[in-house]
Task: structure prediction
Amino acid sequence: MNLPKVVSREEWLEARKALLEKEKEVTKARDEIAAERRGLPVVEVEKDYVFEGPDGKLSLLDMFEGRRQLVVRHYMYAPGDEVGCPGCSMQADSVGELAHIWARDTTFAMVSRAPLADFTPFKERMGWTMPWYSSYGSDFNYDYEVTSENGESPGVSAFYRDGDRVFHTYSIYDRGGEIFKNFYNYLDITHLGRQEDELEHPWDWWRFKDEYDDEDAHVAGDNHWNGTRFNS
Result:
């Protein structure tokens, strides 16, 4: 591998400041898009979805845990699956300490179509403590476009509560969900970056966190949804 151009500290600083101006433009654009996102109209949730958690049955309203907002990670886990999705798992690993999101009156939870008993052993294996509920038997996954005749697909949805009324405010799919993989933010500031250019799929290196040294590790493989939702 060839080294990047080697220069003096002064020359590096000049180049870094030039790039900083572009980074500021991106930051400003991101702030503007976030403001537009908050200004989107909302849809009231009128169906009485029933979920299952470790403590029994609950509603979408119950999932808020009394907070005003709810973020749902649609985790790909179909009935009968023995393990989850490597990509969804990497996002789950990136969630971090929930106290920070709770401090902004927001609850985070994962939802999968599989029965609770199917994914509980996998949750324990991964060491996750965030709430993870089953939507088995309900239309929830279908209504929020993460289950179709082709199977499961990933996504994240946001909901807002006004008293007992619940509103769907936002959903993001496909590559849009990349923002929830925090490790990419760190890799993107390095010289080598993500090191995905030579891979058939950018996700070919993804693994469960306990399988990187396993020759028989599960891989993400081909999918049926990439590039299909809003061309994101």
Observations:
- Residues 43-177 form a domain with the Glutaredoxin fold (CATH 3.40.30.10).
